[in-house]
Amino acid sequence: MEKHPFEFSILFIICSTFLLIGSSDAFGKTSSGKPIHQFGSNMADASISNAIRVALLSDPFITPHLIQVDTKLRVVYLKGEVPNQKSITSAIKKARSVPGVRGVINMLKVRSR
After folding, report:
1. What is the mean pLDDT of the chain?
2. For the chain, which domains are there?
3. Are residues 72 and 102 in contact, defined by beta-carbon separation less than 8 angstroms?
């Protein structure tokens, strides 16, 4: 008897769900004790970094090429040397305004002349 593709899809989803649930405890850790990260967390981090870079382009107080943006687990790290304190304040505000950002770590410094 031939199975319908729909039946196979449902069976696959059910088995995948049991495998995922069976490999983790109630605290979101694998049986080895390592935390389970959300699927696509690297993709989300890259999207957040790109959104911040675009936001920095729209700010007249910021020179975007002087600021390095890194995101790890939705925490944004701003690094580099900028011309003044206003640039730092604006960059932090722009980074915090991007959806999905959990926090901003400021490592920017005012460039000495």
Report:
1. 77
2. 41-110 (3.30.1340.30)
3. no
